[in-house]
Every structure is written in C-alpha cells, then in structure tokens.
Amino acid sequence: MGFDIVFPSITNSAGYLDDNGDSYFPPVPADVNTGNVIASFLRDSASLGGVIKGEQVLQPFDWGTECVTYNKEKMPVDGQVFYGDLWADAAKGKAAFRQNP
C-alpha cells in the first residue's frame, strides 16, 4: 500500500527531517499559487516550520478546524447531533477535546 498525496502538518515539520536536517519534502514549486492564502498565514508559516534551510517546503492549508467524534454507546443521541450537544449535561464526562488544537 502506498500514498498518492501526503499533506503534512506544518506544526510537525521537525518530524519530517532526515539525520542531516534536510526535509523529506522538496521546496514548494514557484508556480504554486499562494495568492489566495492570507498573507499573515503564509508569512507566519516560516516560523512554524514551513521554511527549512531557507526554502519553503510546507505551506499553511487549513486553520481553525477540528474533528469531533463521540461514542454513541456512552452518549446516545436521538436524531441529529449538534456541536452544542457536547456541552449538554448528558455529555458531562463523555466528551473529549484535544489539549492543544
């Protein structure tokens, strides 16, 4: 089994370096359109690990999203589930969130 596309998280860039400190990923091609990326995201991506040895190798791609799951055996819900349900009394002690999103 292999991968067609790998889209690494910019905040884990240190894990994408080989023993010489070189990135496993090539520099971002010059023809990649970054015109629709919020300028501060692109600029700040350098300090978050997007620039390695002077070359942009990772780009910001997503911001402010989280996946939410729940165990319907622990918290049975009839009908639709809403984000606010995670704060309902019935969810107390049954909802979990990432510590550092």
Could you please describe the fold and organization of this structure?
The chain is largely without helices or strands and 101 residues long. The chain is 12% helix and 4% strand. It has one helix spanning 39-50, and strands spanning 51-52, 55-56. Strands 1-2 form a two-stranded antiparallel sheet. It is elongated, with a radius of gyration of 19 Å. The model has no long low-confidence stretch (mean pLDDT 78).
Q: What form results from the Cα inertia axes?
A: elongated
Taking pLDDT < 50 over at least 5 consecutive residues as the criterion, the unreliable ranges are: none
Overall strand count:
2
- Helix amount: 10-25%
Kindly estimate the percentage of residues that lie in beta strands according to DSSP. Answer: under 5%
Radius of gyration: 19 Å
- Average pLDDT figure: 78
Number of helices: 1
What's the order of the H and E elements?
HEE
Q: What structural class do the secondary elements suggest?
A: little secondary structure
Distance between the termini: 30 Å
Largest sheet: 2 strands, antiparallel
Side-by-side strand order of the widest sheet = 1-2
